[in-house]
């Protein structure tokens, strides 16, 4: 009986060692997965920053229904969005060179409204707006 008890104890110790090894591997895998996710998020933010800082002064406004610009004007729509979402950017005096719908022709088969493209006079204005939008993370 003692030999059988020793054999059972050694099997139990071996099983515990295997379990601890598997638990260690699980911890390593989850840590490496989190590191990969963090790297992906960092790379995505770097790509977004690079794309936003390209020396183009265009901003794209998505989701404004068709025909609203006839009543208010596209520049006024942009100012309302800035005033509503970013109260700290109200009195900055952004200069808008051009505002238009894109693409220029309306496709009746397309269910979504066309985007409004705002061409700013300075890249720094665009960068300030995008920085505020990233800080807020939810712009309506």
Key phrases:
alpha+beta, Transposase_22, 3 strands, L1 transposable element RRM domain-containing protein, coiled coil, 140 residues, L1_trimer, elongated
Q: How much helical structure, as a percent, in the residues?
A: 55-70%
Give the total of beta strands: 3
Summed over residues and divided by their number, the pLDDT gives a mean of: 81
CATH-assigned fold name of the largest domain: Alpha-Beta Plaits
How large is the count of helical segments? Answer: 4
Side by side, the strands of the main sheet go: 1-3-2
Report how far apart the termini are: 76 Å
Strand % is 5-15%
Uncertain stretches: none
The CATH architecture of the largest domain = 2-Layer Sandwich
Organism: Sus scrofa
Keywords: Coiled coil
Family: Belongs to the transposase 22 family.
Coiled coil: 5-32
Topology:
Elements: H1 2-52, E1 58-61, H2 68-72, H3 74-85, E2 96-102, E3 115-120, H4 123-136
Description:
By secondary structure, this protein is an alpha+beta fold. The chain folds into 2 domains: 1-52; 56-136, Alpha-Beta Plaits, CATH 3.30.70.1820. 59% of the residues lie in helices and 12% in strands. The protein contains 4 helices and 3 strands. The protein has helices at residues 2-52, 68-72, 74-85, 123-136; strands at 58-61, 96-102, 115-120. The chain has a 3-stranded antiparallel beta sheet with strand order 1-3-2. The longest helix has 51 residues, at 2-52. The chain is elongated. The mean pLDDT is 81.
